[in-house]
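RECORD TYPE: inverse folding
INPUT: structure tokens
STRUCTURE:
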């Protein structure tokens, strides 16, 4: 078996001769040498947060923040449906409508437990409801939320266990 010897061939352009290594080095260094696209003040700005219009209805505030956060329209719609179910659940318990800010984060636990025990929803459905309420309290209402212990849905055992 004979060794193969290769030599780097120069690349010939009209009137210019450039070696292959010079092109690679120039290509690797050029991105580091370009100026930053942001000014120093913009680079130090905190992450974008949106405080919705406090005079708007809850639905308008919710959709405003969801669009600002670039949620998918379907995610936005399903999250809003979970907020409506949450508010209806507490309307039936209290006998009248209550704002989520008045309910506080303690009202989330009974709702999620109700979904697991009475409604018999799946694990993914309960997780989606939890995420919708987390979005409502954290992003829209800018309230800290402490979700207590709630009954988690158990996944059913597989029909055909792996052997």
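DESIGNED SEQUENCE:
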């Amino acid at each position: 078996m004979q060794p193969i010897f290769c030599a780097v061939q120069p690349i010939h352009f009209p009137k210019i001769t450039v070696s292959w290594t010079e092109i690679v080095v120039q290509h690797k260094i050029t991105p580091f040498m370009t100026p930053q696209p942001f000014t120093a003040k913009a680079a130090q700005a905190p992450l974008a947060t949106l405080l919705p219009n406090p005079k708007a209805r809850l639905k308008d505030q919710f959709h405003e923040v969801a669009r600002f956060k670039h949620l998918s329209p379907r995610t936005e719609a399903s999250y809003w449906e979970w907020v409506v179910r949450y508010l209806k659940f507490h309307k039936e318990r209290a006998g009248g409508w209550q704002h989520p800010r008045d309910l506080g984060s303690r009202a989330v636990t009974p709702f999620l437990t109700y979904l697991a025990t009475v409604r018999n929803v799946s694990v993914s459905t309960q997780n989606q409801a939890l995420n919708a309420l987390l979005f409502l309290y954290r992003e829209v209402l800018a309230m800290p939320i402490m979700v207590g212990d709630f009954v988690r849905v158990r996944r059913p055992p597989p029909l055909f266990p792996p052997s």
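NOTES: Residues 37-46 have pLDDT under 50 and may be disordered.
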